[in-house]
Design goal:
Elements lengths: L6 H17 L1 E4 L38 E2 L10 E8 L10 H10 L18 E2 L2 E2 L4 E9 L6 E2 L1 H14 L9 E6 L4 E2 L6 E10 L2 E9 L5 H4 L15 H18 L6 E2 L18 E2 L5 E2 L1 E3 L2 E3 L4 E3 L5 E3 L10
Parallel strand pairs: 3-6, 3-8, 7-9, 8-11
Antiparallel strand pairs: 1-10, 2-12, 4-5, 10-11, 13-14, 15-16, 17-18
Helix pairs in contact: 2-5
This protein binds zinc ion (ZN).
Length: about 325
């Protein structure tokens, strides 16, 4: 992205990176040099071949361009995903129930969880076992704005904590909590330094893993894939696809590096960071929208993930070909 604040921006970005290394892991905004659209290679229905078998009995495999740092991974089969819809989701553009339905379908039964794509995650493990490659949307709650429309991390923590202590959501140290905000909600750093991030905190007495996912309609040039996505609820709105791409990124990282001490490389890049805004070959739908995956009754446009086998690389499905952008 362009930097209207010049040196100030760089200083802030540097400060943020220093902070991020300590307590959260963020998805950086997309690199314009690697903007999708340069390589449009149709590949049939957008899905790769049959799902290959995941590794078994080899929980920690290294030497594939990403390092194991000793911490646990999430091994639930499936890993439950909880969503807090924060802000005004009865609004206009992509701030609608249509977006909510698409995202819950994406994370729901017979979709992302168990897909050849998600099975890339099974190449990661800890000393007691591997990631299952299954995740499942389990429960959602709404919060129309208990902490206002200008958030910072402490306010997000408070909003999540309230859902746990009230019992509206279970307090589950083995799950992933997605804090999804409508496009009118500001979060410090969102759209200028990152498109999303994940972290962990002790909430309601447990080690809770949560991810911030803003509606990317707040900054289409920085965090969206394309103006009209295959799942855009309205013409010209890419918010749903943009959020789905960030959710993909943050969920796979939360599963392979839940406490920020498991899988990342020498520069601190986690598995999804290593393929950030890299999509591989895509197909084009009748409305001009590009997609690279088909499951759960929809086409999707999601970044590749780093596979921790065969020397390491970004691919669209476990065992599939590696692509560099
Ligand atoms: Zn990341």
């Amino acid at each position: 992205m362009k930097s209207p604040l010049g040196k100030m921006r760089y200083a802030l970005a540097f400060l943020f990176i220093m902070l991020a290394a300590n307590f959260l892991a963020a998805q950086t905004i997309r690199d314009n040099h690697a903007a999708p659209g340069e390589k449009m290679v149709p590949n049939g229905d957008g899905t790769a071949a049959a799902v290959a078998a995941g590794p078994t009995g080899q929980a920690v495999v290294t030497g594939n361009g990403i390092n194991y740092n000793g911490g646990p991974v999430l091994k639930g089969n499936p890993v439950p995903v909880y969503i807090i819809w924060y802000g005004n989701w009865n609004g206009t553009g992509s701030n609608t129930q249509t977006t909510i339905n698409l995202i819950e379908t994406f994370l729901g039964a017979n979709a992302l969880g168990g897909s050849g794509y998600e099975r890339i995650n099974t190449t990661y493990g800890d000393t007691t076992g591997n990631v299952s490659g299954n995740l499942l949307f389990t429960k959602e709650v709404r919060d129309t704005g208990s902490q206002g429309t200008r958030l910072r991390n402490s306010r997000i923590s408070a909003a999540i904590s309230a859902q746990l202590t009230s019992g509206a959501l279970p307090t589950d140290p083995n799950g992933v909590y997605i804090f999804a905000t409508s496009s009118d909600v500001k979060e410090s750093g969102f759209c200028t330094q990152f498109c999303g991030f994940h972290t962990r905190q002790t909430l309601n007495g447990q080690d809770i893993k949560w991810a911030f996912i803003g509606n990317t309609d707040q900054c289409p040039s920085g965090c969206e894939i394309q103006a009209t996505g295959p799942n855009s609820p309205a013409a010209g709105v890419g918010g749903a696809d943009g959020m789905i791409n960030v959710i993909t990124h943050e969920t796979e990282e939360t599963i392979t590096d839940p406490d920020l001490n498991a899988w990342f490389d020498a520069s601190g890049a986690e598995d999804a960071d290593k393929c950030n805004f890299k999509f591989g070959p895509t197909s084009t739908a009748a409305n001009g929208a590009r997609f690279n995956q088909t499951f759960g009754g929809h086409n999707w446009m999601i970044q590749m993930e780093w596979e921790n086998s065969r020397g390491g690389g970004c691919d669209q499905t476990l065992g599939g070909p590696f692509f560099t952008n």
